[in-house]
Amino acid sequence: MPSLAIAESFFSEEPKDKKQKKKEKMATKNATLLENPNSKSIEKKKSKEKTHKKINSNPPDSEEEELNSDDSQQSWLEKKKHKKKSSEQKDKKKKRKAVEVADGEEEKSETSSELVEPLGSKPVAVNGSSKKKPRLVENTDDEGGEADADGKANPNAVSNFRISKALREQLKSKGIESLFPIQAMTFDTIVDGSDMVGRARTGQGKTLAFVLPILESLTNGPTKASRKTGYGRAPSVLVLLPTRELAKQVHEDFEVYGGAVGLTSCCLYGGAPYQSQEIKLRRGVDIVIGTPGRVKDHIERGNIDLTELKFRVLDEADEMLRMGFVEDVELILGNVKDASKVQTLLFSATLPDWVKQIASRFLKPDKKTADLVGNEKMKASANVRHIVLPCSGSARSQVIPDIIRCYSSGGRTIIFTETKDSASELAGLLPGARALHGDIQQSQREVTLSGFRSGKFMILVATNVAARGLDINDVQLIIQCEPPRDVEAYIHRSGRTGRAGNTGVAVMLYDPRRSNISKIERESGVKFEHISAPQPADVAKAAGLEAAETIARVSDSVIPAFKSAAEELLSTSGLSAAELLAKALAKAAGYTEIKSRSLLTSMENYATVLLETGQTFYSPSFAYSVLRRFLPEEKVETVKGLTLTADGNGAVFDVPSEDLDTFIAGQESAANVSIEVVKALPRLQERDLSRGRFGGGGGGFSDRRSGGGRFSGGRGGVSRGNGRFSNGFNGRRGASNGNKWGRRS
Ligand SMILES: Nc1ncnc2c1ncn2[C@@H]1O[C@H](COP(=O)(O)OP(=O)(O)OP(=O)(O)O)[C@@H](O)[C@H]1O
C-alpha cells in the first residue's frame, strides 16, 4: 500500500519574502516527522529528533485517495470543484439496527471486533532532497521558525504552521510550543478542506489535531467567508463523542482555544437540563459538542439547524458506533443538507474494520487517512508498562491497595471494573476511592470527576464510561480488575496513563482458570510483564522505610519523656535494640503482624503448591482424583484455583496455610505423588474462552507459542527470570523512581 509523506506538501505559490524563505529552508531540512512512541518526553525530544511524517492511503482503487504533492498543491477552492455529491448520502436512509443504550452509558455490544488491518504500510521517510517542500506559515508577526537548544530548526514548531497569533499565544500559555506528530501531520490537510481519518495511540494529542485546524479554517481559512456570524447563527461545527465526560472535556478545549479567536461553543449531553442548552443554541453558537443521544433530541425538537455546518467530527468513532449510536449518528449526519459542503473528520486510537466500513458512508471518497499506528505491532501506548497479575475475584480488594502502594508512585490511580455494581462495591472497600459509572446521577458524576482531577481523592473506580479519551493529569496507575472483552477496551483503558510523552503503569488482574489474556496480548501487540501480587512483606518494607523517615523527623524533645520506657523494654524484652526498633516502626506503619499471600489467587493465609505424579495431567479432574487418593474430601474441598501447568506435568493450587502440613504429610502415603510449596508460579495453561476448552493448540496448551522468558521480567529488581513469575517490585514505595518508569518529573 502506498504511504506518502505530507509534511513536504502544499508549497505556497505566493511570493516569499526573505524571512519566509529562511523558514522554508529550515523546515524543509527537517520536514519529516515520525512518531516516536518510546520517547520519554515527546515534547522535549522531538525538537532534537529527525522525524518523519507519513500519510497512508488505501490502494488507488479504494475509496481513499492518496495524498500526493499534486493534489496537495490544489487550492481548497480547486478541490471544491471536484467534489461530488457523496453516493453514500443516498444510502443514509438505510439504518443499521442499533442497540438501545442510554446516552453516554457504557453498554457493550456483542460485536467482537478485530483490530483493523493498518491503513497503510510503513511510513515513508522523506529525506531532505525531496523536491517537495513544507507549507509554511503565512504569519506576518512571528520571529521565524523555532529552534531547539542545539539551534536546529524544529519542523513541528507551532510557528511553522498556519496558526494565528492569538491561538499560538493560547497554546504557549498551555506550554505547547510545537505540535505532536498526529497534529503536524493532519493540520494542513484539514485546513485545506479534506475529510480526514486520524489514528494515533492514546494520549498523543488527537483532540488538538482537529481543534486547531478547525479554528484556523473558521477564522482565517477557507470557511471564514461563508461562516455565519451574529445572533441566532447556526453552528459551523458539530463534534460527536461517546460519553458525557469526554464531551465536556473536548468542550473545554474548544472554550479555551476557540475563545481565544472569538468563537463560542456549547456542550449538549444527557442527564443535564435541556433549557440552558436550548438557550445557548437559540442565541447562536459556532461550535456544538455533544453525545449523539442528546444532540439527536435537540435536532428533533428543532433546536439545532445544521444547514450552515462546515465541519462534523466523530471522535472515538468506534466506541460511539459500538455503543449502538449508529442510528443516531446517521440521523444527525443525515440532517446536513449538502454533505459535499461539509468536512467530516474521524479520530480514534482504534479503528476496527467494521468502523472503517461505516465511516466510508460518512466521509467523502477522497478522504485522507493519517495513521500513526498502521502496521506496527504495538497498538497500545508504548509509554506504559503493561503488567498482568493472577488474582482471584475474592482477593482483589486485598491486593489492590498493595498494588497501588507499590506502583502508583504517589499519583492518581484509575481502577476499571466490568460492571457498575462492582465499581460501587470496590470503591466502598478502598479507603479514599470514589466510583464513576452510568447509574450515578450526572451532577454527581461531574463532582466526582472534578474531585479526581483536582486531587481531592486519588483513586477512581470506574466502568468503561471513563475508558475513552479522558485526559487527567498525573494518572500513574491503571488497574483492570479483569481482562476486558475486547482489545480496544484494553488499549483505551491502559491509555489513561502514559499520556503526552509521560510514562505510567497498567496492571491487569486475571484469573488463570477463567481469563484469556493471550488474545489481548496478541491483538494489542503488548508484551505483558507477568508478576505475582506484591507480598505483604514487600509492602511492609516500603511502609517501614516511610515510617523510618517519619520517625527521623520527630523532635528530640520527645526523648526524655519516652526514654525510661524504652530502656525498660530493652532490658526485659530479650530483643536487640534494632529488633525492638523494627517493632516500633511496624506499629508506626500500622502493622501488628504480616500475613503471607498466595502466588496463585493472591489470597492471604493461603500457600500455593505444585502437585506432580510423573504423569501428564490432561484435566483438572485428574488432579482432584490424585488428591482424593490420600486426603479426606473436606481437605480436597479447601483447594482454591487449581490450574494445570503449561507443560501438562502438574497442577498448582492454593491451600489454607493451616492445612499445608496435612497436604505435605499426606503425599507420603501416596505412591509417586509430590507436593511442594512453590516460590514462583510456573507457566500455566490458559483457558481459551473462544473454544470453550482449555488450551489454544492441539495439545491444549495455549502457552506453547510464548517463548521462554515470557513470564520473567519484573523491572523492579526482583525478577526471578527463568520462565517464572516475579513480583516485579523492589520493596520501595514508588519502586520505579529513578528509572524509565519513575514518576513523571
Ligand atoms: N502539542 C502538544 N504539546 C504538548 N502537549 C500536548 C500537545 N497536544 C496535546 N497535548 C496534551 O496531550 C494530552 C493528550 O491529548 P489528547 O487527550 O488529545 O490525546 P488523545 O490522542 O486524544 O488520547 P485518547 O486516544 O486517549 O483520547 C493532553 O493533556 C493535551 O493537552
UniProtKB/TrEMBL annotation:
Residues 187-369 form the Helicase ATP-binding domain. PROSITE patterns: DEAD_ATP_HELICASE (PS00039), HELICASE_ATP_BIND_1 (PS51192), HELICASE_CTER (PS51194). GO terms for molecular function: ATP binding; hydrolase activity; RNA binding; RNA helicase activity. Residues 139-148 have a biased composition (Acidic residues). Residues 721-734 have a biased composition (Low complexity). Residues 1-156, 689-745 are annotated as: Disordered. CDD domains: DEADc, GUCT_RH7_like, SF2_C_DEAD. This is DEAD-box ATP-dependent RNA helicase 7. It comes from Nelumbo nucifera.
